[in-house]
Design a protein that fits this description.
The complex is a heterodimer of chains A (about 110) and B (about 120). Chain A has about 110 residues and is mainly β. Chain A has strands at about 5, 10-15, 20-25, 30-35, 45-50, 50-55, 60-65, 70-75, 85-90, 95, 100-105. In chain A, strand 6 (about 50-55) and strand 7 form a beta hairpin. Chain A is globular. Chain A starts with a strand and ends with a strand. Chain B has no helices and eleven strands. In chain B, the strands form two sheets. In chain B, strands 2, 4, 5, 6, 9, 10 and 11 form a seven-stranded mixed β-sheet that branches. A four-stranded antiparallel β-sheet of chain B has the order 1-3-8-7, with no helix packed on it. In chain B, strand 4 and strand 5 form a beta hairpin. Chain B is globular and about 40 Å long. Classes of the chains: A mainly beta (about 110), B mainly beta (about 120).
């Protein structure tokens, strides 16, 4: 079993839809990261969480430390949100989920 | 925010040659940098942890003599793929952590290596 499990693996949505990506982990962590990887491969760090909830524009990330679970929400999705979203957990190093490939259709 | 610069962004090389990839932290000191590898449609896999001034720590199954890592300064780590083979073709990406600011990680742009 992977240390970081993400679901779904693939997600297709219509523009404007509310999107949720889930992440569960099985190891002790100091922080959880949500990353966005574009087709060219470049990675952008969206959020770093150790508790609670963070919001940035249309993106919201939550984490439940007791349940070892985090969610990334995208409100009013747009085609430019199409990317691979990766959940990663960090302690001394980082471990990554397999990623969720999101496609938002106009 | 903090910036990590990785160079080159892509490289094509012949089998048997060596390729060097650089990872620089531009506005913070990174005592530790991480090197990852990503095959198509797969997740990032940690290859090694690079510590300034000391030997890198390699993950199980990663050949340290093939993937040479040097972390000579607080802002620069290099990964050299020696005697490259087509199966080394992959996407390589580095990250660095600004430990003075916590555990947030910053990623380089990645390097797509194609060995022909």
């Amino acid at each position: 079993k992977n240390e970081v499990e993400q679901s779904p693996q693939n997600l297709t949505a219509q523009e404007g839809e509310f999107i949720t990506i889930n992440c569960s982990y099985s190891v002790g962590i100091s922080a959880l990261h949500w990353l966005q990887q574009h087709p060219g491969g470049g990675i952008v760090s969206l959020f770093m969480l150790s508790s609670g909830k963070k919001k940035h524009g249309r993106l919201i990330a939550t984490i439940n430390i007791q349940e070892k679970h985090s969610s990334l929400h995208i409100t009013a999705s747009h085609p430019r949100d199409s990317a691979v979203y990766i959940c990663a957990v960090s302690s001394l190093d980082m471990r990554f989920g397999a990623g969720t490939r999101l496609t938002v259709k106009p | 925010g903090a910036v990590v610069s990785q160079h080159p962004s892509w490289v094509i090389c012949k089998s048997g040659t060596s390729v060097k990839i650089e990872c620089r932290s531009l506005d913070f000191q990174a005592t530790t940098m991480f090197w990852y590898r990503q095959f198509p449609k797969q997740s990032l896999m940690l290859m090694a942890t690079s510590n300034e001034g000391s030997k890198a720590t390699y993950e199980q199954g990663v050949e340290k003599d093939k993937f040479l890592i040097n972390h000579a300064s607080l802002t620069l780590s290099t990964l050299t793929v020696t005697s490259a083979h087509p199966e080394d073709s992959s996407f390589y990406i580095c990250s660095a952590r600004d430990f003075s600011g916590g555990t947030e990680a910053f990623f380089g742009q990645g390097t797509r290596l194609t060995v022909v």
